[in-house]
Amino acid sequence: MLLRFFIRCSGADSSILSTCSPGEQNKYAGIGATVFFTALMAFIASGYALYTVFDNMYMAIAFGLIWGLLIFNLDRFIVSTIKKTGNLKNEFLQATPRILLAIIIAVVISKPLEMKIFEKEINQVLLQQKNELTLANKDQIALQYNPKIAELQQNIIGLKNEIAIKETETNALYDTYISEAEGTAGTKLLGKGPVYKEKREKHDAALAELQQLKTTNTEKIRDLEIQISSLEVAYTDQVNGSQPLIDGFDGLMARISALDELPWFPSFFIFLLFLAIETSPIIVKLLSPRGPYDYKLEDEESAVKTWASQKVEQRKLLFNTDTALNKQVYDDLSKEEEMYRYKKKKAEELLKLQADAFHKLQIKNL
User: String of b and e for 37-76 (b: at least 16 CB within 10 Å)?
Assistant: First the structure.
């Protein structure tokens, strides 16, 4: 059962192969097994690759199965069409397009499995890239908010400086009228005289202005702090809103790029391994010696070719003979008097009918 299945996978003619020795059958069963397992490997690799793209197991399995069947059919067709002629050069020329295609397929198959094999290392690279993207994203968004926040903070500092300057002036006036009362400065007279009263009024006016300035600037500072808080909330919301895009930066292209940043040596040998697997059906067919099956197949094909050539030649001879006979028959008929009179009579009848029809048409037009 399994032997017949692998023989079918090889693309060999089972009716011819059944007349060959068990060794010959085993050889083609081995070729068929190579074709089958190559297609199986293509199915697994493409399924995983598509899973990283669609993130859907059923879709990945469906498309992976289609890809595996495509590779299976292609390998089976190529292997079955390479004829063992005993001339390795001609056989290699037949296989050259398939080998070039195998290189492309090997790249397609090996990349997904490389990503699976080096998944932990790729995740580490992606984590670093995500962290860099997160920081860059925060810096880029900050460029939209930081200048405005800095301007508002500078306004707050200016308002606080106004209060501090006014407090300094008020304190200086306080020290002035206290010194006047103590007699340590100003008029040097102890007691609360007219000068003291004047300086006290200046201080009280400055103190009132200070209180009003504090009230006004405190309200302005509160408004500015609310604006700063709003900008900080907007900045945080925008950073949080864009973060899922960065967290989702782990698709197929991102993983391939991360894989390229890893050392190339292991990936190269994995590629060579899959190239060997992908080209193994054709290599097995090229290296296998010419056996009884190849001779019997060549005999059957040559018999069909000979029979087809004979049929073509027979049709050509039949056509040429029939053409010569028809020419001779018509030449003989052209010389008979009775055939001439009959043909003349029919031509006269045809001319009369045409003349009558033309006459009727002319009358109708008048």
Answer: bbbebbbebbbbbbbbeeeeeeebeebbeebbeebbebbb
Calculate the average pLDDT of the chain: 78
> Rounded CA gap, 145 and 122, in Å?
35
pLDDT tens-digit profile of 164-184? 888 887 777 776 766 656 556
For 298-349, the DSSP string reads HHHHHHHHHHHHHHHHHHHHHHHHHHHHHHHHHHHHHT-HHHHHHHHHHHHH
Q: Provide the greatest CA pair distance for the chain.
A: 174
Cα 162 to Cα 146, 174, 206, 217, 256, distances in angstroms: 24, 18, 13, 8, 60
For the stretch 47-56, pLDDT in tens is 877 776 677 8
Rounded CA gap, 129 and 243, in Å? 13
- Amino acid sitting at position 109: I
Helix, strand, coil tally for the chain in percent (to 5): 90, 0, 10
Percent of the chain with pLDDT over 70: 89
The alpha carbon dihedral of 350, 356, 359, 361 has a sign of: negative
What local confidence, expressed as pLDDT, does residue 86 receive? 66
Residue 355 phi, psi dihedral angles, 5° rounding: -65, -40
pTM (two decimals): 0.50
As a whole number of angstroms, the distance between CA 37 and CA 211 comes to: 90
Amino acid letter, residue 305: K
Amino acid in the structure at residue 132: E
**Domain assignments of the chain as residue spans, ordered by start:** 2-118+262-289, 129-250, 307-365
Position 156 scores a pLDDT of 87
